[in-house]
Amino acid sequence: MREYLLVLFVTAAVTYLLVSPVRKFAIVAGAMPPVRARDVHREPTPRLGGIAMFGGLCAGLLVASQLTTIGRLFIQSADVRALLSGAGIMWILGVLDDKWGVDALVKLGGQMIAAGVMVWQGVTVISIPVPGVGPVAVTPTQGMIISVLLVVVMVNAVNFIDGLDGLAAGMVCIAAMAFFLYSYRLWIGYGVNDAAPAVLFSAVLIGMCLGFLPHNLHPARIFMGDSGSMMLGLMLAVAAISITGRVDPDLITDRTGSQTATVHALVPIYIPLLLPLTVIALPLADLLLAVVRRTWAGKSPFAADKQHLHHRLLQVGHSHSRAVLIMYFWAALIAFGTVAFSITNTGRTVVLAFAGLCLIGLVVLLMPRFRPHAPRAVQAIVPPRYRKARWAAGDAAADAAGPAGESSAGEPPAAGGEPADAPAMAELSAKDKALLSRVGSGATAVGARGRTKG
């Protein structure tokens, strides 16, 4: 565990330190596309954050290759080399898209090429475990199709949720943590050596996300762009493929002593790729809904719109930060709930706890205008929006508004029942005001509360 923690911290540190110079490079290189109609940020923001994340990936793997236990993977398995090859192709494709833009079909072709290169080097599903039967071998063609499909689905699922500050990086980090716990348990607890690459990939992925998040939280200083989001999706897929179909149930039966216990322990992988799909359940659902929605409307599945899950949370009145936290909550609940069900023998307890947390999540989801006030004793250490003094000032500003509910600057109150910030509105240019009126207050805010894509 210490070696994996070292790799995680090195990856996070290198990623964090590289973000600032990469941001300056992105500004100089002009990788700051103008604000589009579907975006929720108000000002152009540099992209290419994936460059820093790729640097963290290389640094983490370099350190891992020099360690005693993890270093054996670089000799015994080709998965690490395959990951670097696929991630490199995906990263280059993303950088080109962030700077100049790449057609959707060309991008899809590049994703399939990256997946094909990894399959050619051995990262492919070999067999599918079936309860009571054991591993069922698949043909090389079937394994290739399953592997390429998983890579493309995960890459686009992560890319689709990259719409709010810190959303994609945070959700991938949560998914990687859940996958790390599960694969580490298979490796250490049951002696499944084929799970070791998935442990390493998950640790590196956690480090990349943690190192990038401080720069990407609202308000974001930089976006990861497609160079980052597609690479994160690919790494999740590689971690899933490297373990799925390679776990022999007989090895776990020898440890558990009964086939019943083995079936319970392997619930997440008995159905092929169940666990990898549950850890990205929300991005996957968003992807499927987007394809159905656009196809039903007679549009291309790749046509961008402003109807993703995070956009809808903003439209119902949630603030930017709360929308992101809600997505974090549901992602963690589904991912860690699946892992917990595979670990504990008291499935009823897990189900009851899951149901209780779902109820809490639904209550928060349906109360977009609720703003909790922190106790006076801790107000000095909580964000300003949770301090009573701020809301008292907000109430006074609301009382001073006109009879139509407009603020002193002549603008309607901000979304979520908060009074608009008059000085910030006064500083807006005519172009910004036109953009604000076109986008709508449910999708953007003013001043320091401006919502950005990230």
Order of helices and strands: HHHHHEEHHHHHHHHHHHHHHH
Low-confidence runs: 389-427, 441-454
| Helical content band | 55-70%
Number of helices: 20
Distance between the termini: 32 Å
Main sheet characteristics? 2 strands, antiparallel
| Beta-strand segment tally | 2
On the 0 to 100 scale, the average pLDDT is: 74
- Estimated structural class: mainly alpha
Strand order of the largest sheet: 1-2
Rg over CA atoms: 23 Å
Written account of the structure:
- The protein has 454 residues and is mainly alpha-helical.
- Helices cover 64% and strands 2% of the residues.
- The chain has 20 helices and two strands.
- It has helices at residues 2-29, 49-65, 73-76, 79-99, 104-120, 140-160, 167-190, 196-216, 225-243, 249-256, 259-265, 267-270, 274-278, 281-296, 309-315, 320-343, 347-365, 388-399, 422-427, 430-439; strands at residues 127-130, 134-137.
- It has a two-stranded antiparallel ribbon with strand order 1-2.
- Helix 4 (79-99) packs antiparallel against helix 9 (225-243).
- The protein is globular, with a radius of gyration of 23 Å.
